[in-house]
Amino acid sequence: MNTETVNLTKFAWLSIAAAVLTISMKAAAYILTGSVSLLSDAMESVVNLVAAIVALYALTLAAKPADSHYTFGRSKAEYFSAAIEGAMIFGAAALILFVSVQRLLSPVSLDNLGIGLVVSVLTTAINGLVGYYILESGKKHSSPTLVADGKHLLTDVITTVGVIFGVFLVKITGLEILDPIVAIIVGFNIIWIGTGLIRTSLAGLLDATLPEEENHTIVTILKSFQSETVSFHGLQTRQAGRLRFVRVDVQVPGVWTVREGHDFAHQIEAQIEEKLSDVSVTIHVEPIEDPTSYEDIPQGFVPLDGDDGFVPVDLETGKPITFQQ
């Protein structure tokens, strides 16, 4: 496994710069128009800014190499960033809903809506470009922080498009009650975003298995090494930030030397590392004819070919009865 850490903080700085710019523009639009939906849009950008600052800290921490205290590194710090961002979104949504309900009960006339629309279009373009770039970079580097930040920015684009539509309706219809209604819809949309971010973060902190397609890749590789004298069980996978961890037991003939078992395991590791980036593979080699080799199957594992991951052995011959994995 390539243990070299990757510094992704430049993407967080880009997100911070975009947030500062869009906050300034949206705040100016709110001051000029008095539109509460534009205010709600500006509030979401404030969340983007604080989230980007948290992301910067998390990415800086995750970039530090492993040491004697954090022997597996600090890559899980990224999940805390995404969770904090999700929690902050709830706070922003609550404030938006509070202000919107007040405006719904006490309507205020709106001014300079044309300027507000122009500013919103410009901020949408900025967030769209930056969000797409950060999201693709997050996928490339398997960074949950960047993926969360990119998705949030792109969702902000959707939110702003909704606000633009609402302000446009107010401009052409004169129905100012539409402004707080749009803002309320924006608030509930933000809550939905926050729920998704927190769910993703908790899955990472709780060591959820790798995505299905990656597990399938690993299983395919293991099956390519399977034979009448080699079997596998107890496959476990997890992800910590950009790092992936794979563990599996392999049963081989007991007459093999330590060197033969080591070389065989190394071949498997090399193929997995060729298909998946930033992966650490741990393979436990066991004698296939020893019944105790089948007593350590973990409670949680990735099934091989849909079965329970267990290979029964004929205790008289010492050979597996079936090879359905």
TrEMBL record:
<dbReference type="InterPro" id="IPR027470">
    <property type="entry name" value="Cation_efflux_CTD"/>
</dbReference>
<feature type="transmembrane region" description="Helical">
    <location>
        <begin position="156"/>
        <end position="175"/>
    </location>
</feature>
<keyword id="KW-0472">Membrane</keyword>
<dbReference type="InterPro" id="IPR027469">
    <property type="entry name" value="Cation_efflux_TMD_sf"/>
</dbReference>
<dbReference type="Pfam" id="PF16916">
    <property type="entry name" value="ZT_dimer"/>
</dbReference>
<dbReference type="InterPro" id="IPR050291">
    <property type="entry name" value="CDF_Transporter"/>
</dbReference>
<feature type="transmembrane region" description="Helical">
    <location>
        <begin position="12"/>
        <end position="33"/>
    </location>
</feature>
<dbReference type="InterPro" id="IPR058533">
    <property type="entry name" value="Cation_efflux_TM"/>
</dbReference>
<keyword id="KW-1133">Transmembrane helix</keyword>
<dbReference type="Pfam" id="PF01545">
    <property type="entry name" value="Cation_efflux"/>
</dbReference>
<keyword id="KW-0813">Transport</keyword>
<dbReference type="InterPro" id="IPR036837">
    <property type="entry name" value="Cation_efflux_CTD_sf"/>
</dbReference>
<dbReference type="InterPro" id="IPR002524">
    <property type="entry name" value="Cation_efflux"/>
</dbReference>
<comment type="similarity">
    <text>Belongs to the cation diffusion facilitator (CDF) transporter (TC 2.A.4) family.</text>
</comment>
<dbReference type="GO" id="GO:0015093">
    <property type="term" value="F:ferrous iron transmembrane transporter activity"/>
</dbReference>
<protein>
    <submittedName>
        <fullName>Cation transporter</fullName>
    </submittedName>
</protein>
<dbReference type="GO" id="GO:0015341">
    <property type="term" value="F:zinc efflux antiporter activity"/>
</dbReference>
<feature type="domain" description="Cation efflux protein transmembrane">
    <location>
        <begin position="13"/>
        <end position="206"/>
    </location>
</feature>
<keyword id="KW-0812">Transmembrane</keyword>
<feature type="transmembrane region" description="Helical">
    <location>
        <begin position="181"/>
        <end position="198"/>
    </location>
</feature>
<feature type="transmembrane region" description="Helical">
    <location>
        <begin position="79"/>
        <end position="101"/>
    </location>
</feature>
<dbReference type="GO" id="GO:0006882">
    <property type="term" value="P:intracellular zinc ion homeostasis"/>
</dbReference>
<feature type="transmembrane region" description="Helical">
    <location>
        <begin position="113"/>
        <end position="135"/>
    </location>
</feature>
<feature type="transmembrane region" description="Helical">
    <location>
        <begin position="45"/>
        <end position="63"/>
    </location>
</feature>
<feature type="domain" description="Cation efflux protein cytoplasmic">
    <location>
        <begin position="210"/>
        <end position="287"/>
    </location>
</feature>
<dbReference type="GO" id="GO:0005886">
    <property type="term" value="C:plasma membrane"/>
</dbReference>
<dbReference type="GO" id="GO:0015086">
    <property type="term" value="F:cadmium ion transmembrane transporter activity"/>
</dbReference>
